[in-house]
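thread: overnight batch results

M.L. [08:02]
morning all. the overnight job finished for the chain we discussed friday. pasting input first so we're all looking at the same thing
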Amino acid sequence: MYILKIGWNLKKIPDEIELDQKDYFHGTSVSSIIVDGPTINPELDDGCGRFKVRHFGVATSGHFNSFTILRTIDEIVKENRDIKVWNLSLGSDKEIHPNFISPEAAILDKIQSENDVIFIIAGTNKRTVDGEEKYIGSPADSINSLVVNSVDYNNKPVSYSRKGPVLSFFNKPDVSYYGGDRSNPIKVCCDTGERSVAGTSFAAPWIARKMSYLIDVLGLSREVAKALIVDSAASWKKLKDTTSTSFTHTGVESGKTYTYTVRCISSTGKSYKSGYDTSGTKAMFLSTPTVTKISNTADGVKLTYKESKGASKYNIYVNSGSGFKKLGESTTTTFIHEEAKSGTSYTYRVRAYDTTGDFSSYYKTSSKNTFIAAPIIKSALSTEKGVKITWDKVTGAAKYRVFVKSGTSWKKLKDTTSTSYTHTGAQAGKTYTYTVRCISSTGKSYTSGYDTIGSSVLFEK
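M.L. [08:03]
and the structure it wrote out:
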């Protein structure tokens, strides 16, 4: 039997506040779990033994001032420096703010940092069972604390459990434990004897027992003890039994890291025949950034591809007939192949990488395109008949479409297979801006980009 010290809430409530019998029930019940919970809940025997508890009453069962309580807790911790693990089973019904940590949580974090202690905090309860999810209440958003949620005996969240995260990226609650439900309540000892209860308040003390064992018996630091508790909460889920030496995990989520392990089993699958790697092998899955659009622009071939969640960069590969080679990198979902040669066909692939570069998406999917360069006007001259525009022949072009600027848009003048065109409708003394774009032989689609600025000329007869 281990006689360990865990701080719980001796009376610190001002004498002028009248206490009721119900004010003693909650604290006594929680303390009974810490002292010897497995005796009346043998199915939850954790092998940690019995604990010696100092119980400090800091609040009544009704409404309370959180800052008065926190000031009292700060005093209690400083007066009891031999206690390293403190259980706190109270909290707010109001949800935490998504963009900042509550003042109560910040104060608890400061107390823990200054005194080298850790608080085990109940993840707060949802008062109504309506199926609607509700975020945890303060001080369960304390970063340094070990926050405990509740599950049933099938490891499913109970009806009163609430959710995190904190600040959108801190996983809170940290772990879950059995807090009881209507079918399988937790048994506690109170002033009237044995009672059946349920709530995150009755899940937290089980974790407090484990933390005290790791710190007070094994001599671990609070950081290591917390890490071990959190890590132990991650269980292994069976994916598949197989006689092969490979397996593909389908239905995975892009940007999510999975940890895998393998264990030998009997031919019937009813017993294990080997141990297994308890650490496992980690792998992040990144979805394939499939090319969704290829367009010929004045700057080159522009690729647009799907975002791969979790990717930090994309590598672009090209094949012009002699095999794929790396073309470049991008941190966005677009890339321009600036060195593309007009009339040449290119096949593209894109591969996504995470921040370490260790994991990438499968990139076998290819997209083919023939690049047609944008025509460049080499001269725009005034002639007797009008403005004559001339441009270089573009390799691979079937036809050209000539435009003149009208306000802020471009107006079509003529489709032609020639490399020149005369604007006969030009008026003397007026400035015109022209551009040319390659089109298909039918004239139904564009095959190149164009000079968006164009070439300007003052028409003079």
